[in-house]
Amino acid sequence: MKIRISFASFLKCLxxxxxxxxxxKRAEAxxxxxxxxxxxxxxxxxILRSELEFQHANATSQGYKSPNLRCDILRSLVQNKLLLARxxxxxxxxxxxxxxxxxxxxxxxxxxxxxxxxxxxxxYNKSMSEIRNDLRRSLREQLTVQKxxxxxxxxxxxxxxxxxxxFNRIPKDSLPYFSTEVEVGQIVKIAQIGTAQKQAAREQLExxxxxxxxxxxxxxxxxxxxxxxxxxxxxxxxxxxxKRELVPEYEAAALxxxxxxxxxVIESMFGYHIIQLLxxxxxxxxxxxxxxxxxxxxxxxxxxxxxxDSIRNLIQTDSISFAKAAKDFSDDMASKGNGxxxxxxxxxxxxxPIDKLDPSIFFVIDTMKVGSISAPLPYRTxxxxxxxxxxxxxxxxPPHQANMRDDYQKIAAAALSDKxxxxxxxxxxxxxxxxxxxxVPEFSTCSLDD
Length: 450
Description:
Blueprint (H helix, E strand, L loop, with lengths): L6 H12 L6 H7 L6 E5 L2 E4 H13 L7 H21 L6 H19 L2 H8 L3 H26 L6 H9 L8 E2 L2 E10 L4 H19 L4 H8 L11 E6 L5 H7 L11 E3 L2 E11 L2 E9 L5 H19 L5 H8 L3 H4 L15 E2 L5 H7 L11 E4 L5 E12 L2 E2 L6 H24 L5 E3 L11
Antiparallel strand pairs: 1-2, 1-13, 3-12, 4-9, 4-11, 5-8, 6-7, 7-8, 10-11
Helix pairs in contact: 1-7, 3-4, 4-7, 5-7, 8-16
């Protein structure tokens, strides 16, 4: 049996455990005797034994069974590395803004999940700057592979006939049983920061800058005042970056500096910065910064609530559909293009098992009737911004065995995924000889053929 463990699934585990050097004490003990080495080379990319073993443990825990499971996983890893190698040849590049936005969202999510920046550093036994750098590299690979896969699969679609054929191929005794599922939408409005709040943040940073120019230590003040969860505890140090790896405003200001020089106050999407250039090394530069974010005042939240109430009234009086309102007004980029509907990570369907809902959503929709919309509720975005949102319960499906009537969307998504995977596998078979691939003798019996 051939399995294709997606790169996205691997990166989900890689980011949480492998790339950040974080694994449980039991896993650390199990791997303590493992001497890591290279098991395959694909162009300029390598696959480590630890990657293969971690994937194997992850697949086993998810119930994958195959007499050649390690070979199946190795093929999947080789395929992903080939996609990366060909992306370099074909100049497939992910925009730095996309990487930066994903990076900040993930970091804030990790910090929120574990409780604090200090606990995150303790858990991974790394500084925030090291965690940030590891995560950036992982995300760059993940997003590049995803972009390559989209280019290979193109605008692929499935017809109703193909969906039915896919469903008919599933053995009746293998049809999944779905628990209670819901479709939930949201319209998010980020509280707008007023001029007074922006001016206060700028003035605070101007005062800090004057203290630095007067001789106080930049790193000490960064630890005391910086609101960057990644670098503040490290004295503001971000580490070495290449051009176009940081937001444009930050990079432009940093590259104008001489080593040891401190920039004027600059504004970026994250807030206000002062920057000190530490060192240049070829095309790379190392900086530290102090970040101050404008505070959100209560009046802004009240105005946001009033706006959301107005949108809610328009929907309830049928003046506008929820989907159109989400598209026109929501500040949540992930859901506004999907009619405001929330999906699980890496899931194309809007149906969410109720036991997988975020608790903050579950306790709201648990008392709602299908078709109703909540009052504005406090919300914090993944990047830490204060916001409000209204929730919409579109549907609620009782537990049942998969069928075409109730689960067409999920079955169609699975059929489309299967079709895309076949296209990517065909691409791999056609292109695997265009890049040098070397596998160690231990795995020489593993076939790269699908």
